[in-house]
């Protein structure tokens, strides 16, 4: 092997050794911050207030923020995944998302909205496309 080819092999070996870390069998779990995420306990409490009171501005604003975050998050996930699959949000509407979160949070009170949104996406992917 020529010296130039050997140098390229060594350089590539070093490059791939540095650029592609070896995790063994399981890659590390990634953690990220999601601004606006909320707990299911908050969702349940605000939805109960909404059902009990005809109109409460503070409660309505908090629920508006929660619903906005949820719809925005799901829209972002759908946008990112449409290159690989069909648009999963074309199968539901905003009220269905709210109903899903009511049921999900009742069953998983220790979870977050992010968990509920992820579970919804998984469930929607199992439905037949339109």
Structure, explained:
This protein is an all-alpha fold. The protein has one domain. The chain is built from five helices and no strands. Helix 2 packs across helix 4.
Supply the helix-strand structural class. mainly alpha
Overall residue-averaged pLDDT value: 74
Task: Report the portion of residues in β strands.
Answer: under 5%
**Mass-distribution shape:** elongated
What is the oligomer described by this structure?
A: single chain
Low-confidence spans:
5-23
The biggest sheet amounts to: none
| Domain module tally | 1
Helix content: 55-70%
Total number of helical segments?
Answer: 5
Radius of gyration using CA atoms only? 22 Å
Annotation, overall tally of beta strands: 0
H and E string: HHHHH
Alpha-carbon distance between the termini? 59 Å
Outline of the structure:
This protein has 130 residues and is mainly α. The protein has helices at 3-19, 40-52, 57-81, 94-107, 113-126.
Write the layout of secondary structure elements.
Layout (H helix, E strand, L loop, with lengths): L2 H17 L20 H13 L4 H25 L12 H14 L5 H14 L4
Which characteristics define this entry?
5 helices; single chain; mainly alpha; 0% strand
